[in-house]
Amino acid sequence: MITDNESAKMLSSHGVIQGYNGIAAVDDKNQIVVWADAYGDINEAGHLPQILQDLEKQCKDAGISEDIVHTVAITADSGFHNEVNMKYCIEHEIDTYIPDNKFRSRDVRFESSGEHKKKTANWRPVHSKKYFAPEDFHYNHKKHTASCPAGHPLRLNMKNYKAEDGKYTGDRFRGIEKVCRECTLRDKCIRNPQTPFRQVTFFHRSIEGPDFLNMAKEKFDTATSRTMYSRRMGTVEPVFGHLRSTKGLNHFTLRGLKKVSTQWRLFCLVHNIGKLKLCW
Ligand code: SF4
Question: Boundaries of each Transposase DDE domain copy (predicted)?
């Protein structure tokens, strides 16, 4: 059996495959790949600080810029939105636009997006049913009390519930079975008709210091940030599309991190040569 200990299991459109993750940083003006490397790791987000440091060094060595990460705006998809990355970018004052994975649900422009999906012969717009979210309940975290949208007090089920390695503390509440069964708002509150009562958990941050995730979210929830992020799709995705469909790199054909990384960079280099030819 042939094995490659440096590779990892990757989720792909063909299911889970053993392989590598090719990552690239692309400039938005000419779609030149300015940095590329491959990782035997499904968690590409864990490499962002290293990617930014490598990018900075590479541009410095090439005489492009002494401080590239502080002279450009950087966008990345929501997979890169985590506490470590946001902390790194905020503390190093790097102008990043990296959304969390719920950013579309907060954007009114996506409210009717379901209507534009898969228009087939029998297509009907999908209006998913909205249920009460924790924000629709009233919660007092100092008194550990809560009431539901129908105005009924909830029972405290679990106090100071810890989540995300203790970063968040929460209180879990449940409705009163008899009240929930007879409630006129039950349809909007409980998904499964067999469920006897509603449960809801409220979290609040329990560690000292800045909340980097929220700071990043607040920065992202502005028209300028969203416009900036919307450019990402037309910047990096065509490069991946070009490498896959025109250059034929549907999968890496070598084994071992060093060889795969070289293969990935060579393909990016060939892509860049094509782009440079267009510029001249
Ligand atoms: S179903 Fe229960 S928790 Fe939900 S609104 Fe009605 S009484 Fe309140």
Answer: 147-276
